[in-house]
Structure formats: structure tokens, C-alpha cells
From TrEMBL:
Pfam families according to UniProt: adh_short (PF00106)
Record's protein name: SDR family oxidoreductase
Lineage top rank: taxon: Bacteria
GO molecular function: oxidoreductase activity
Length: 244
């Protein structure tokens, strides 16, 4: 059955690939991100392929903006079946570099952005007595390495928030499902946003050899959505087969 699916960070990478795959199956997509030309292009690609999509310019660090994204879904399609908290970035650097601005942005986008998404959609899902949060964490939620301390902290936070949400919704018998997706290296614009040149070069080399297509992540997300509503896949860890 066709679902109304909201995706943050839908203007590139995993968000874009997931939007396009789900639209091809007949789901109705509502896309949020900050770059309007990218969003317009993706909506027109989806419509050209026979799908249905809308977008709202969204900054996930701004609660009002995230609520406006939810309202766009309600105004256009009348419900929110799936909310995918996907916006995120990883400007890796060692602590000695003192990139405090990057640390704060990661906390704002990767962590607060997810909380704002939950706040924007949960009451609607409770009223509907159904819904599904898909929160994009990372393999870095489960491990940490030099330069990745703040990123791993935010993604471990996403994991913890998701598990608490799952437990609360289970106890409330709300029929709201929660899935955390923890990808390994995926070929997106991800590495472009690293501001430390040494870290960026090392990551670019690693990704050139290892990263998989974001379509792989999209396929696994579609599978979690398709599960009958009485069951939920609560976590997916998906890496390139060759990633150590
Ligand atoms: P991309 O850089 O391709 O996509 C990131 C998306 O987030 C863009 O659409 C960007 O859009 C959006 N975004 C960034 N900041 C904001 C903001 N303040 N408000 C709204 N949207 C924002 O990277 P990926 O597709 O790889 O990243 C998607 C998710 O996957 C992230 O959470 C990332 O941490 C996670 N991930 C990625 C991995 C990888 O190897 N690629 C591995 C593990 C996890 P715009 O600039 O238009 O706002």
C-alpha cells in the first residue's frame, strides 16, 4: 500500500536514493533539505518517472522549519506514515585541531535534528495509531576511531534516542515502529563536508576503494518499510562487504 514518507537530507546521497526508490514503488515522498535547486530537480525526476513528491526547504537545526516540513506532508497528503531522520554530516578531525564550530554543527544537525524530527511527527503518528521512524545512525555509533569522537557521540546518541523511543511506543501500544540504520562507507557527498584537509584526503582515498552505492541503503530501508505492521526491524547494520 502506498505510504506518505518524509525524508530529511533528501537533496543528495542516501536520502535522494531512498526517495527515488520509494517513489518508484508508488509511495508519496515529502523531501526536506536546504538546497532548493537540488530538491526541485529530484522532485521533477520523480514526477518524470511517474511518481509523486513534494518538497519543503528545511533546516533540521530549526524546530519551526522541521515542523513546517511535517505540515507540508499533512497539507499535501493528509498523513505521515514514515519519517526518515537522515540529514547528517561528519566533519572528522582530531580534538587538538579545536574545530569547535564543526563539533557544534554535528551536535545540531545529527542529534538535535533527529530530536526535532521526532517532535514534528510523533504526535501525528500517535493520532493515526501507526507510524515508522527510520533514524540514520552509522557504524560509528558502535565504534570510534581518532578524528571521529564527536561524530560517533552524535550517532551513538541517535541509537540511544531511537531505542528509548522504541520502548516508549511499545509501552504505549501506539503501533509506531522505530528502525535505526547504521551504514558503513557509502558513496555520497559525505566526504565533501570534511573541513580538515588531512582527514578529508584519507577518507576520500578510503571511500574511493571501499564505498558502496546509496541504492544499497535505500533497498534495505524499503525492506523495513514493507514488513507487516506487527513487526519491526529495529536495526540494520549495512557495510560494504570489503569494509574492515
Ligand atoms: P550527503 O552529504 O550526500 O547528504 C547529507 C544530506 O543532509 C544532504 O541532503 C544535505 O542537504 C542534508 N543536510 C545537511 N545539513 C542539513 C540541515 N541543517 N538541514 C537539512 N538538511 C541538511 O551524505 P549521506 O547521504 O551520506 O548522509 C546521509 C546520512 O547518512 C547522514 O546522517 C550520515 O551521517 C549518514 N551516514 C553516511 C555514511 C556514508 O558513508 N556516506 C556512513 C554512515 C552514516 P542540504 O545541504 O541541501 O541541506
Amino acid at each position: 500500500m502506498s505510504k506518505v514518507i518524509v525524508i530529511t537530507g533528501a537533496s543528495s546521497g542516501i536520502g535522494e536514493a531512498t526517495a527515488k526508490l520509494l517513489a518508484k514503488r508508488g509511495d508519496k515522498l515529502v523531501l526536506g533539505a536546504r538546497r532548493e535547486t537540488k530538491l526541485q530537480q529530484i522532485v521533477s525526476d520523480i514526477e518524470a518517472a511517474g511518481g509523486t513528491a513534494a518538497y519543503a526547504l528545511t533546516d533540521v537545526t530549526d524546530l519551526a522549519s522541521v515542523k513546517a516540513l511535517a505540515q507540508t506532508a499533512l497539507d499535501r497528503f493528509g498523513r505521515i506514515d514514515v519519517w526518515m531522520n537522515n540529514a547528517g554530516f561528519m566533519p572528522a578531525s582530531e580534538f587538538i585541531k579545536g574545530k569547535v564550530t564543526d563539533w557544534n554543527r554535528m551536535i545540531d544537525v545529527n542529534l538535535r535534528g533527529v530530536l526535532y524530527g521526532i517532535d514534528a511527527a510523533l504526535a501525528t503518528m500517535r493520532q493515526q495509531k501507526s507510524g515508522h521512524f527510520i533514524n540514520i545512525a552509522s557504524v560509528a555509533a558502535h565504534t570510534v576511531s581518532p578524528g571521529g569522537g564527536v561524530y560517533s557521540a552524535t550517532k551513538a546518541g541517535v541509537w540511544m534516542i531511537s531505542e528509548a523511543l522504541r520502548q516508549e511506543e511499545a509501552a504505549a501500544k501506539s503501533n509506531v515502529r522505530v528502525t535505526v540504520v547504521s551504514p558503513g562507507a557509502v558513496a555520497t557527498e559525505f566526504v565533501d563536508h570534511v573541513t580538515d584537509e588531512g582527514a578529508k584526503q584519507a577518507l576520500a582515498n578510503y571511500y574511493a576503494q571501499t564505498a558502496i552505492s546509496p541504492k544499497r541503503i535505500a533497498t534495505s530501508i524499503a525492506a523495513t518499510i514493507d514488513l507487516p505492521a506487527d513487526a519491526a526491524i529495529n536495526e540494520i547494520v549495512i557495510r560494504p562487504t570489503s569494509q574492515d
